[in-house]
Amino acid sequence: MKQTKLCPKCGSSNIHLSEGGAGGHGSGNIIPTGSFTWQAVPVDRYICCDCGYIEEWIRKDHLSRIEDSKKHI
Where are the domains of the chain? Predict the structure, then answer.
C-alpha cells in the first residue's frame, strides 16, 4: 500500500496514513529502542478505509536504530 497506493486485499485506493509517533507515558505507535520515549522508533500505519486492512512500516532512516537496539533479538 505504501508504494502502490492500492490495498492488496480489496484493490481500493481509499488509503489513509496514520503517522507513527509517541505520546505521553509511552503511548502511540512506536517500537521502544531504549529506556526513554524519545528513543523509540515511530511506526507508520497505512489503513484501507474500505476493508480495514493495515500495513505497518518503519521509515528507512530509523531502521539502523532497530538494528542497534539491545532490546530486540
Answer: 15-62
DSSP codes, 9-67: TT----EEEE---B-GGG-BSEE--SSSGGGPEE-EEEEETTT--EEEE--GGGHHHHH
Distances from the Cα of 36 to the Cαs of 2, 24, 48, in angstroms?
29, 11, 32
Nearest CA to 46 out of 72, 9, 7 is that of: 7
Question: Rounded to two decimals, what is the model's pTM?
Answer: 0.80
pLDDT string in tens for the chain (73-residue length): 999 999 999 999 999 999 998 877 767 888 888 777 777 899 999 999 999 999 999 999 989 888 887 765 5
